[in-house]
Amino acid sequence: INMRVATVIVAVLLGVANATEWWESGNYYQIYPRSFRDSDGDGIGDLNGVTEKLQYLKDIGFTATWLSPIFKSPMVDFGYDIADFYQIHPEYGTMEDFERMIARAKEVGIRIILDFVPNHSSDQNEWFTKSVDSDPVYKDYYIWHDGKVNAETGEREPPSNWNSEFRYSAWEWNEVRQQYYLHQFATAQPDLNYRNPAVVAEMKNVITYWLGKGVSGFRIDAIPYLFEVDLDRYNQYPDEPLSNDTSCPDPDDHCYTQHIYTQDQPETYDMIYQWRELVDEYHTQHGGDPRLLMTEAYTSFDNIIRFYGDGTRNGSQIPFNFDFLSNINNASKASDYVEHIEKWMNAMPAGVYANWVLGNHDNKRVASRFGVQRIDLINILLQTLPGHAVTYNGEELGMTDVYISWEDTVDPSACNSDPEHYYERSRDPARTPYQWDASSMAGFTSADHTWLPVSDEYKTNNALQQLRAPQSHLQIFKTLVRVRQEPSFRAGELKIQAVGDNIILYSRQKAGSDLYVIVLNLGDSNQAIDLTQYFSLGAQAEVITSSLQSQYINGDIVQTAAFNANANVGTVLVGI
User: Fold this and answer.
1) DSSP character for 323?
2) What are the transmembrane regions (predicted)?
3) What is the rounded CA–CA span in Å between residue 403 and residue 325?
């Protein structure tokens, strides 16, 4: 073919040659429990619903599932505002339901990972109530400050210009205590004070408690916000500099300032390393399998990599690769994909695994962002790169965003906006009920209502229909998960390049094992490719799987010198 060949070529051996522990080269599935399966007919998903569907996840082949928060909560931010870190939220079930879920997960052979939300609690948490009352034990559990008095007006003002992620000041006045408290998210989510050793000890107790209940690890939420800069010698907090971003002219928006004092403070990394030491120590003392930490941090690339460890101390085994999620989109060219894949692989410390994630409960769905026609291509990519793959519930079906009206919107990030701008801020469209079958309410509930609307597409796009179909997004996904177990995918070399603007070519091979070649065509037109120009392939190769709209089906034999890369199609081939 006569196409410009991008020069980006990378060949990287995995830092760990052979996977031995349960979590290595894992396949992780995020469940949003409120929308996964409702077992008791109240229109809200619950733990018994998760328990009921664990076999489904095992049949697909997932290693583990992490559950978005299930702890007792007023649900201002749908579980990310925790009133009691040691109790199950009543809408989701009881502690007995949780223990039953853990037991069933052990039976079917799938691990449970909990969402740990350490940055803040609910304002209805007993700790906060006691802190408001200046209880000596809890007085400094949160960030409190007198604020400042405006020299011109004599009015009391917040201590600094810090803004919340959900808009407006991050400081809220409390009449009882006569001070401001810090909340980097909703006003109902006061930030905990990690400069207080008692808070550090308390949150370690939370981790140990749930390890004792049988969980296999934690996904740690909103890490960049754990620490703020310390008070200066005048007992004040500094204002953050303005971002001067022309796309963010509203002083109430989070993006109006640069968050140099409220995010990514140096102490943050030490805290992650302490938590890793805690779970490792628990493993040493109690036996069983090693426990896993996943970390969520929308931060710079270098900061994400630091969560792996500092060369002396270990950190998170899976610092979520949000460099990939944040920089790859529907307009990305082949070279963009390759650049960000190469960037991560080359920056990893020795002895760790890469991870690939493009969807979660905080972003619009993959099929909506990249196009439904590309959902299989994206899943092929995520499942065939080295290391861990992370899938948000519904992406294996190609579920799409559901339009949620302003009247039906419940996400606080959107509710703090207005009818004109709410949708771009809303996370509700990706949080709608899972589409199980074509029955009423997509088989999610027996109720006649759901907490968020069910997609109009559920009758034609659901798990049961895709399981019964000879070829479907889910069938392709299951094939990918199976082939991931092959030695060349678990521990094989990656050689990757971009060909022109639209073609991504890469191979996976472990010495002495099969050579797999993956062809991804991001473009809207077919392209003929001589694969023997790029790989040591024979005259023919076998199709392992290909996108739903592909001309190829599993088991087809193709001529490698004249391979037809269909538009928006991914294909996995094995040399024969």
Assistant:
1) H
2) none
3) 22
**What are 61's two structure tokens?**
């082949």
Query: CA torsion sign, 248 to 253 to 259 to 263?
Result: negative
| Residues near 88 by beta carbon (within 8 Å), at least 6 away in sequence | 47, 70, 71, 72, 94, 95, 97, 98
pLDDT at 417: 86
CA angle 264, 265, 266 (to 5 degrees): 115
Cα distances (Å, whole numbers) of residue 337 to 251, 366, 503:
35, 15, 10
Angle between helices 197-212 and 267-286 (to 10 degrees): 40
* 360-396 burial code (b ≥16 CB/10 A, e <16): bbebbbbbbbbebbbbbbbbbbbbbbbbbbbbbbbbb
Non-local (6+) Cβ contacts of 178 within 8 A are: none
Distances (CA, A) of 537 to 175, 341, 512: 73, 24, 15
Look at the chain and count its residues: 576
Burial class (CB in 10 A: 0-12, 13-18, 19+), 200: middle
Q: Which long-range contacts (CB under 8 A, 24 or more apart) does 126-134 make?
A: 126/83, 126/84, 127/202, 128/190, 131/177, 132/174, 132/176, 132/177, 133/176, 133/177, 134/177
- 318 forms bridges with which residues in the sheet? 294
Q: Are 45 and 433 in contact (CB under 8 A)?
A: yes
Rounded CA separation 406/403 (Å): 10
Tokens found for residue 29: 């599935």
pLDDT in tens, 357-413: 999 999 999 999 999 999 999 999 999 999 999 999 999 999 999 999 999 999 988
Contact 539, 527 (CB under 8 A): no
- The answer to whether 55 and 46 have CB atoms below 8 angstroms apart is no
Read off the pLDDT of each residue in 3-12 and give the average, rounded to a whole number. 35
Pick from 31, 109, 60: which is nearest to 485 by CA?
60
pTM for the model stands at 0.94
Distance CA 146, CA 163 (A): 17
Average pLDDT taken over every residue of the chain: 95
Which residues partner with 242 through β-bridges? 257
What contacts 552, CB < 8 A, 6 or more positions away? 543, 546, 558, 566, 571
**Which residues is 545 bridged to in the sheet?**
572
**Nearest C-alpha neighbor of 127 from the set 139, 117, 119, 115:** 139
Amino acid in position 305? I
For residue 17, what pLDDT band results from cuts at 50, 70 and 90?
A: very low
Instruction: Give 9's pLDDT tier (boundaries 50, 70, 90).
Output: very low
Active site residues: 221, 296
17 burial level (CB within 10 Å; 0-12, 13-18, 19+): exposed
Q: Over 80: is that where the pLDDT of 184 sits?
A: yes
- 169-172 contact pairs (CB < 8 A, 24+): 170/262, 171/145, 171/147
Quote the CA–CA distance of 308 and 310 in Å, as a whole number: 7
Instruction: Report the run of H or E that residue 439 belongs to, with start and end.
Output: none
- Report CA torsion sign: 34, 387, 476, 109: negative
